[in-house]
């Protein structure tokens, strides 16, 4: 009976691990893991409240400044 080398076993185990890793999203979907995760995240997010931040004010001020900038018409550039 031929002996199975350790290299063969290691390569076979590595191949199986890669196959499982590649198919994990589909396997998790079938097992319902994503639904549970979505419910858990929704529960955590339900306690959060959206606050207006300084970055929103900054973005609005930049937008106003950009709208106030003078523009150069095409005919003005040629002169």
What do you see in this structure?
- The termini are far apart.
- This protein is 75% helix and 0% strand.
- It contains four helices and no strands.
- With 79 residues, it is mainly alpha-helical.
- 0% of the residues are buried.
Largest sheet: none
How many helices in DSSP terms? 4
Mean pLDDT: 82
Strand-and-helix sequence, N→C? HHHH
How would you summarize the topology of this molecule?
Blueprint: H1 6-31, H2 33-45, H3 54-68, H4 74-78
Brief digest:
The protein is an all-alpha fold. The protein has one domain (6-69). The chain is 75% helix and 0% strand.
Key terms:
79 residues; elongated
């Amino acid at each position: 009976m031929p002996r199975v080398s350790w290299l063969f076993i290691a390569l076979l185990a590595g191949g199986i691990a890669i196959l499982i890793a590649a198919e994990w999203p589909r396997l998790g979907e079938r097992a319902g893991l994503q639904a549970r995760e979505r419910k858990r995240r929704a529960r955590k997010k339900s306690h959060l409240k959206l606050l207006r931040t300084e970055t929103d004010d900054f973005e609005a001020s930049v937008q106003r400044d950009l709208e106030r900038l003078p523009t150069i018409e095409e005919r003005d550039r040629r002169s």
